[in-house]
């Protein structure tokens, strides 16, 4: 884009999930002058994104209601919004705050914010494929002029598995778990193989149960670890120890300290997950203070364990998964996947070590692709090719400044591009859940507007409750 003005007249946000929507909402909340705002979003309804566009009520949030406010400065916003709905209206406060609400209800919450704050914005249903000096270019050739462009493209689809390229049209193969697969459900004496044991696999298992499908399910991942359950913690004031700055320890000493406290909690009969929770407020700073070697070492040796403790699931969901295991319906395998291939109408999964597992339906739920330069997004590939964006030093996402301005291929802050959300994994590590993203959305809005202002909170909240 040609040199943009210091204060933007027109802002285009690419991606209309939580990150893009809440960036737009914060711009409208904070702006003291008129800004032209456009949100470009493809594939699903704007506002809901991948996580909250599910139509299935059995898919619950994996964070309690009390921590799901969309605004960092109004902590009870979501809980208060829930009171506008009949089913939550009369629940005791402590019960409502601890509830794991259906994700589709959270999608309704985001849509209500969209209607309230963004009546003046333009919504474009389409795919952005490039950004050049004219603005944002869509796949249909339309160009949308912009002084500033925010990349809020969210999580990538899973990385392709060896052999999957030959299965594109195979009826028993699903390369993207976010596509609708219910029409392909095998007969109840058939089998389903889920590649991955993370949150997407949990979603699929819960749906199978709610459909009353009792066929055989195999779930495969390197360690075979399913997410752990949320639990009621205990007071544990000993961590972090007084006077210790966790971010200054370096990886080796930090791991030692954490393991020591986890063992102490185990000895006390308490859940060591408390330590991971207590680290959450420090995680981004710790990550940024680690050396590149330490971050790579964490990703290789500790990340899998961290993820299953950190990204826990609602106890009622965990109980259903446990039942599936105990009844033998679900078998979990710890193995690396070597390749996938067709076996007539079925799909065969070959594991390292020679074992094979065959399914009538095999779903790639291995989690988002994390190597940024291998992105399947045409937009991001084009921006990389132009040198408009550059990978962070772990190649997990884009490089940014503290204000979320993208750093280009020559190492200079871009005059017009910003980023938010999962694209910043290499910078922050924790950057995929609402408690982190709501703060980012506000920061990006402030950078866009070049100002830090306080909104008149009470007035706006009152009006939303009446929607
Ligand atoms: C199954 C699941 C459950 C989750 N549960 C929780 C939870 O309970 N609590 C929590 O805090 N977090 C949860 N998360 C994390 C969740 O990802 C974040 O809360 C948040 O929704 C991420 O939003 P996003 O906008 O960054 O990305 P996304 O939701 O992925 O949205 C990105 C949007 O951008 C669009 N897009 C991408 N590229 C383009 C392009 N080139 N042109 C146009 N549009 C484009 C996509 O189609 C998509 O609509 C969950 C995630 C998943 C997958």
TrEMBL record:
Q: Which InterPro entries match?
A: FAD/NAD-bd_sf, HpyO/CreE_NAD-binding, L-asp_N-monooxygenase_NS-form
Residue ranges constituting the FAD-dependent urate hydroxylase HpyO/Asp monooxygenase CreE-like FAD/NAD(P)-binding domain according to the UniProt record: 12-155
Q: Which Pfam families match?
A: NAD_binding_9
Q: Which PANTHER family match?
A: BLR0577 PROTEIN
Q: What is this protein called?
A: FAD-dependent urate hydroxylase HpyO/Asp monooxygenase CreE-like FAD/NAD(P)-binding domain-containing protein
Native source organism of the sequence? Brevifollis gellanilyticus
Q: Source taxonomy lineage?
A: Bacteria, Pseudomonadati, Verrucomicrobiota, Verrucomicrobiia, Verrucomicrobiales
């Amino acid at each position: 884009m040609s040199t943009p003005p210091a204060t933007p007249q027109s802002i285009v946000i690419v991606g209309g999930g939580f990150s893009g929507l809440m960036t737009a909402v914060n711009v409208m909340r904070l702006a003291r002058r008129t800004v032209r705002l456009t949100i470009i979003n493809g594939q699903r309804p704007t506002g809901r994104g991948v996580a909250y566009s599910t139509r299935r009520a059995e898919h619950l949030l994996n964070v309690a209601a009390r921590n799901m406010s969309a605004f960092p400065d109004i902590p009870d916003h979501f809980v208060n919004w829930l009171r506008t709905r009949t089913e939550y209206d009369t629940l005791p406060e402590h019960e409502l705050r601890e509830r794991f609400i259906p994700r589709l209800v959270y999608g309704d919450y985001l849509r209500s914010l969209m209607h309230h704050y963004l009546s003046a914005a333009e919504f474009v249903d389409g795919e952005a494929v490039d950004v050049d000096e004219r603005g944002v270019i869509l796949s249909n050739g339309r160009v949308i002029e912009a002084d500033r462009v925010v990349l809020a493209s969210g999580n990538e689809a899973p990385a392709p598995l060896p052999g999957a390229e030959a299965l594109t049209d195979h009826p028993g193969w699903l390369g993207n778990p976010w596509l609708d697969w219910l029409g392909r459900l095998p007969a109840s004496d058939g089998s389903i193989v889920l590649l991955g044991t993370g949150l997407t696999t949990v979603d699929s298992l819960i749906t199978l149960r709610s459909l009353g499908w009792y066929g055989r399910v195999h779930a495969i991942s390197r360690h075979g670890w399913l997410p752990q359950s949320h639990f009621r913690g205990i007071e544990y004031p000993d961590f972090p120890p007084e006077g210790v700055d966790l971010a200054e320890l370096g990886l080796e000493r930090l791991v030692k300290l954490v393991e020591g406290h986890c063992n102490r909690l185990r000895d006390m009969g308490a859940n060591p997950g408390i330590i991971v929770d207590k680290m959450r407020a420090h995680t981004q700073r710790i990550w940024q203070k680690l050396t590149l070697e330490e971050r790579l070492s964490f990703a290789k040796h500790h990340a899998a364990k961290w993820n299953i403790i950190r990204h826990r699931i609602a106890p009622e969901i965990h109980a259903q998964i446990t039942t599936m295991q105990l009844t033998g319906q679900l078998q979990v395998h710890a193995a690396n996947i070597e390749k996938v291939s067709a076996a007539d109408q079925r799909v065969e999964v070959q594991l390292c070590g020679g074992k094979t597992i065959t399914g009538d339906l095999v779903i790639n739920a291995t989690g988002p692709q994390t190597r940024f330069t291998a992105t399947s997004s045409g937009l991001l590939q084009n921006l990389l090719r132009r040198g408009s964006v550059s990978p962070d030093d772990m190649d997990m996402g884009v490089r940014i400044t503290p204000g979320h301005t993208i750093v280009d291929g020559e190492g200079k802050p871009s005059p017009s591009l910003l980023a938010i959300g999962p694209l910043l994994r290499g910078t922050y590590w924790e950057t995929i859940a609402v408690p982190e993203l709501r703060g980012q959305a506000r920061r990006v809005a402030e950078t866009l507007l070049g100002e830090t202002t306080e909104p008149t909170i009470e007035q706006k909240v009152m009006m939303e409750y009446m929607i």
